[in-house]
Amino acid sequence: MAPRLKVNGQGYELDLPVGRTLAETLRDELGLTGTKIACAEGHCGACTVLLDGVPVYSCITLAHMVGDREVTTIEGLREHPLVDAFVRADALQCGFCTPGQIVSASALVESNPEPSSDEIRHAMAGNLCRCGTYPKIEEAISAWQG
Amino acid sequence: MARLIRTEKEIEGRYEEVWLVVEEDALEQWPAGPREIVGRPAQRLTGPMRARGEARYTADLRLPGMLHAAVLRSPHAHARVKEISLEKARAARGVRAAIGPGDAHVLTAEPGFQGQAVAAVAADTIDLARAALELIEVEWDVQKPLLDPDEAVRRGQLVGQASRYERGDVDRAVAEADVVVEAEYRTQTVLHNSFETHQSICEWRGDSLDVYISTQSIWGVRDEVAGRLGLAPDKVRVVCEFMGGGFGSKNGANDHTFIAAELARRTARPVRCALTRREENLAAGNRNSTIQRLTAAAKSDGTLLALAGEFVNATGWDGWASSTDGPMQMLYDCENVRTVLYPARLNTPPMKAFRAPGFVEGTFGLECLLDELAAKLDIDSLELRRLNYAASTDDRPYSSKNLMECYRRAEQHWQRRDEVRQRSEGPWKRGIGLASQIWYGGGGPPSYAWVRLGSDGRATVITAMQDIGTGTATAMAQIAAEELGLPLERIDFALGDSARGPYSVTSAGSSTVPSMGPAVRSAAADAARQVIEIAAQRYEKEERVLSLAGGNVVSSDGGSWPIEEVVGLLEDAQLLGQGGRGPNPTGMQVLTFGVQVAEVAVDVETGEIRVERVAAIHDVGRVINPLGASSQVEGGIIQGIGHTLSEDRLLDPASGITLNPTFDMYKLPTIADVPEIVTDLLDIPDEHLTNLGSKGLGEPPIVPTAAAIANAIRDATGADVRSLPISREEMLRALKEARERQKEGRAAPAAV
Asked: pLDDT-based confidence at B751, cuts 50/70/90?
């Protein structure tokens, strides 16, 4: 089967086996390795991408189920002010969860440009970070507009 | 000049006597306090690459022709392979090789824990490799696992020897004491859960082996692989540029590297072997559980007379005895101390170092015991710790110790006690607790760095170090920038390749900054000296009037020239400065210290616990990057909160099978669990330690967190919580016990 994917504004025709996840497809077929896989079971959020602006765990999203929805990965958000906000606040240590954090945060600030602390904690609770950068993530999102 | 010395080397609390070649450390320490760049907040150099998803981790590497390995791991905690057949797997689609017990030393026919590697296949894709695993036929002889640490001690089944320590006469001191407290503490098994799982790609090139690996120890992996495979060390190249967390678990080559190397040898193709999250949580190590049976004896004025402890580490099938007994031996001035530590060998996954191994567990027991003693003596907890402040616990003085200053700074947080308690409301009881921290973190030689200065006036620090996410490379760049008088944005950093830079210490034991920092400064100073030599000739000045500042060569008698004007004379060539880490101060203990004050709220009806605030005051010498340092402190405390309240690797008590190897069942802290964290680092350079006076900071912040929280819970509720994690079940059990004790009138709880 040959699904079409629209990723970061580019169209792709792919020949993929049924059952291939979106995360694997992005990383192995399209070379978009900014999307990380840390659990591969939809528990940690490292693989978060946007489908029509809605954050999803790409490791449990099948490539064939994406349909017409526009995929946005960290590679499509490199110029987003959140990237610089994360760096300024030191909101990353090993950085493996960071692209997923920024993708989730971009959806949050898109719908709510000035989120409260509680709103940040609610929206970001699906993105784990083992290094414990959470205080700085909260700071980065609070100050994302500079 | 290089010198040969005989010295003690410490890693993670383990000492060995070794010969060491060290460099002279001729530079004077900078004065205390922030400099132009060192001591001021700096964004991490690799931040943009990591945040933009450009950083290439081992997990992101794909070599041409690369195969994928999958590993058959024992489904049983204790078993023997009676028969195994790899034939069907070998014949399966896309499979290029299959190996079984004995084909690599890490593949066994007698697994001693669930998850131990037995066989492996390499195939064109990971899906095909995993499918082929299903075709491996194994007939198992399943044996009864030994899972009870106390039973292992009774049987004498240990990993190595029991270790015994004694000073003074504990029995006499206990007999003469006014007050004695005894208690048993337990800590659980905690999983590292680095986000990038353990993984390697191995590729043979002629008789050389390239190992791309997610590691904390590039040089340790090189030595281990070369030694095991019988290669000259330089025939093994180890590469790790970006690394997705280790926390102590990635100090070795591990089974996956040897499996990849053997499959790569057999197929003449690069082979990737990456653990899944479930494999990670079986076979990649853990912080072992402990049982601690402790005694403290004191005079009525609070003077500690004796400390004694029996410690059982549930080490697992393999590993080493982390120093659960260390804090009891080292933290307090106490003449009579006796400890015995048993590393129990069990049919459970082997431990690996995990951020201050042993001291996290031992500090929980000791610092809770001290609070129980304080309550019985009716002495303030902070005061009891000051009363028993140690000037030294063996014949060696400390290179520096400012724990008393940490206690002084803790007062403002400790004084919130009444106010915090008064905020108790309905079922929510509030309280405050503290605990002290002691740990290593002095680093040591050898460690080397080069600084390459080009005609564009940019410098590159080159060393085959790894940055495991702590921000070490940024701290190194700050040091080089300071010494070279260059702005930080003109410093680059090349690391992560054993073939492309000099030896660096492993990133464990809070040792990278204190080991590498002085070497980098020394290399930068060597480069700066060469610039000044050239400038002196070019501008006809005496060298002594020249210095480097603000990107210029500056003369004290007037005159200033951009540094690129001087190094520009080299055209396309560069200057190379070299530096090495000098020796540690002879005859001194180099340690880090601190105290944390935690505030909690406990719902005494449901057992829910919320940590509301943690103040962390640590003495780690000079702070290079206050921004990165605060991140380390926060990360340590947040891992500590997980250790205290939610994380618990559960085993089926009959079979020894791990029940919760995934993130949905193994509860890491989330952003919603984070309290207010106040970081206060003393920033007092250790005058005896290196040209920097800096110690390590990776581990100290996690050491006292569990005890501070448990002591706060006792303050809030009067309940003695002595077993980690303090789940709701454990909290309700302790509350019930406290109520029953109160009814019996034996002792009134401190609060409620």
From this structure: very low
Q: Report chain B residues whose CB lies below 8 A from the CB of A43.
A: 662-664
- Per CB-CB distance under 8 Å, the chain B contacts of A136 are 631, 634
| Interface check B92 vs A, CB under 8 A | no
Compute how many other C-beta atoms are within 10 angstroms of the C-beta atom of residue A68.
9
DSSP structure class, residue B408: H
B658-698 confidence digits (pLDDT tens): 999 999 999 999 999 999 999 999 999 999 999 999 999 99
One DSSP character per residue, B128-153 reads HHHHHHTT-EEEEEE-PPP--HHHHH
**Nearest neighbour of B43 by CB, restricted to A40, A83, A90:** A90
Amino acid in the structure at residue B423: R
Q: Is B59 an 8 Å CB contact of chain A?
A: yes
Residue (of B70, B71, B77, B154) closest to B110 by Cα position: B77
Predicted confidence at residue B1, as pLDDT, reads 64
Contact B79, B284 (CB under 8 A): no
State how far the Cα of B736 lies from the Cα of A120, in Å rounded to an integer: 37
Q: What's the Cα-to-Cα distance from B271 to each of A32, B65, B67, rounded to whole Å?
A: 21, 9, 5
Nearest to B252 by CA among B196, B206, B200, B287: B200
Q: Closest by alpha carbon to A106, among A61, A73, A57?
A: A73
Phi and psi based region of residue B471 (left: phi greater than 0; alpha: psi -120 to 50; beta: remaining): left
Grouping H, G, I as helix, E, B as strand and the rest as coil, residue B516 is: helix
In Å, what is the CA distance from B126 to each residue of A60, B73, B138, B685?
17, 16, 21, 51
Calculate the average pLDDT of chain B.
96
CB B313 within 8 A of CB B342: yes
ipTM of this complex prediction, to 2 decimal places: 0.98
Average pLDDT for residues B218-231, to the nearest whole number?
Answer: 98
Query: Do B197 and B277 contact (CB within 8 A), yes or no?
Result: yes
Query: Cβ–Cβ contacts within 10 Å for residue B148, how many?
Result: 15
Please indicate, yes or no, whether the overall pTM of this predicted structure exceeds 0.95. yes
Q: What percent of chain B has pLDDT over 90?
A: 93
Q: How do residues B437-487 score in pLDDT, each as one tens digit? A: 999 999 999 999 999 999 999 999 999 999 888 999 999 999 999 999 999
Question: Residue B547: phi, psi to the nearest 5?
Answer: -150, 170
E strands in B417-574? 428-439, 448-453, 459-462, 491-494, 546-549, 552-555, 560-562
DSSP E strand stretches across B317-386 = 336-345
